[in-house]
Amino acid sequence: MKNLMDFFNIIDKLTLYLKEKEFSFTEEGYPLFSKEMFLSEKPELIVPVYQRKNRRVTNKKKTLIAFYCGDEHIYRRIVNLPEEIEEYLPYMGVIGCDVTVTKDMEIEWQRAIILLNLLVMAVFAANGIKVVLNTRMGSSETKDMFKFFPKGITIASGFRGGTRKC
Fold first, then answer.
1. Considering the entire predicted model, what is its pTM?
2. Residue among 113, 135, 150 at smallest CA distance from 8
3. Cα(119)–Cα(134) distance, rounded to whole angstroms?
4. At the N or C end, where does the chain have fewer CB atoms within 10 A?
């Protein structure tokens, strides 16, 4: 991703992909998740996406993948996500995408990034890969994003950006 247009092109690409898969959306345009899409069991191992092929991963069906790393590395993984989705099928599930959103960003920009993060999570869910909600939401003005999720789902929270490659 090299510019703002690339960012919005990814949003458009993922939205079209999900509509082709007949994924549901809210009136606001956010993907709508059902409780069944979320992981309900505890993983044995959680690894960053860049370590998914590490020798520590001995049982993919019990391994959860996290997208906690630098944004430039996340973009590399998601730009071709629909075409590369089969790579994630053997794993237990995926923690929702974590492109950086912070409270000092303009609200419209925060919402665009949150939308991208949710669309990525929806692509996994649309392909039968269990997801875990990443609670990174920016400022308190974007906390309304949680109203679209079922009660009693598994969540994950990251506290610091990553620097390793994905």
1. 0.90
2. 113
3. 12
4. N
Q: According to the model, what pLDDT value does residue 159 have?
A: 60
Which amino acid type is present at position 66? A
E-strand spans in the chain? 45-48, 63-66, 93-95, 130-134, 155-156
Does 162 have pLDDT greater than 50? no
Q: Average the pLDDT over 98-117 and give the result.
A: 90
Token digits for 87? 């790579």
Please provide residue 58's backbone torsions phi and psi, each rounded to the nearest 5 degrees.
Answer: -95, -20
Q: Is 74 left (phi over 0), alpha (psi -120 to 50) or beta?
A: alpha
H/E run at residue 111 = helix 107-126
pLDDT confidence band for 102 (50 / 70 / 90): confident
Q: Where are the alpha helices (DSSP H) in 21-106?
A: 71-78, 81-84
